[in-house]
Amino acid sequence: MQKLTLFGFLFLLSALGNMLSAQKTEFLTKGKIIFEKKLNVYAQMQQVLKGEEGSWVDNVKDYFKKNNAQFQTTQWTLYFDGNKTSFKNVPDDENKQNMWFVYNDEDNVTYSDFEKDESVRLRHVYEDFFLVTDSCRKINWKITNETREIAGINCRRANAVIMDSIYVVAFYADDIITPGGPESFNGLPGMILGVALPYDHVTWFATKVTTDSNVDKEIVAPSKGKKLSNKGYVETLEPAMKTWGNRGKNIIKVTQF
């Protein structure tokens, strides 16, 4: 009876150890994340041409839809190390598309230092380069109980409204403790691996997360361009694009993401 009790105790101890080991979470503090940005260009075209009149409008829409796919997909990399991140485009000349009504963001870089509360966004608007240097975006998130697996990692959903009227759905992973995300989305208790702007027809979702120890050289604030605060950036673009109609308004909006 004693041997049986001892065997049972050892078996229980072993099972408990295995269970605790299985529950152990490995927190990531350094690495890189590949994001896929998907833009509904048909919907964006509708927004830009809204209010325009004439047969040419329908002709443009019909021609574009016959010759182009509905979604434009681009690849981006988010490098992270502790409280710093850098979000950059992955060049793809083979699948590059230039559309007059879609803002070309391939030169853009978003650098964030959450410890210093500093954000530096390189924005290329036609011939000009701007360094939008300001504090990190403050977002009033509401965390929900909804979950979703992204890039093999369990994430929790949060909702918010930014820039007064833009509804944001985000999914974050608390296994990655850096409180960042694609573009300037941040402020959740973990890395944001998915963002959707339903009414702006654009999403950013992670496809791959890797632990890369050699990311330091990639996490550097951009330095090329005219340095402005976010307010100064908007005040500079608005007069210049006053006659551009919805196209100009859209450029000002999307370059603030």
Notes on the protein architecture:
With 257 residues, the chain is of the alpha+beta class. It has a single domain, classed as Clam (outer membrane lipoprotein receptor (LolB), chain A), CATH 2.50.20. It has 5 helices and 12 strands. It has helices spanning 2-23, 41-49, 55-67, 230-240, 245-254; strands at residues 30-40, 71-81, 84-89, 109-113, 118-125, 128-134, 142-150, 153-162, 166-173, 191-197, 202-210, 226-228. Strands 7-8-9-10-11-1-2-3-4-5-6-12 form a 12-stranded mixed beta sheet. The longest helix is centred in the N-terminal third of the chain and has 22 residues, at 2-23. Residues 7-11 and 13-24 have low confidence and may be disordered.
Number of helices: 5
Strand composition percent: 35-45%
Number of strands: 12
The 3D shape can be described as: globular
- Average pLDDT works out at 88
Distance between the termini: 69 Å
- Low-pLDDT residue spans: 7-11, 13-24
Helix content: 25-40%
What is the ordering of alpha helices and beta strands? HEHHEEEEEEEEEEEHH
- The spatial strand order of the largest sheet comes to 7-8-9-10-11-1-2-3-4-5-6-12
Largest sheet features = 12 strands, mixed
CATH A-level architecture: Clam
Q: Rg to the nearest angstrom? A: 23 Å
Structural class: alpha+beta
What is the CATH fold-level name? outer membrane lipoprotein receptor (LolB), chain A
Structural domain tally:
1
Report the CATH C-level class. Answer: Mainly Beta
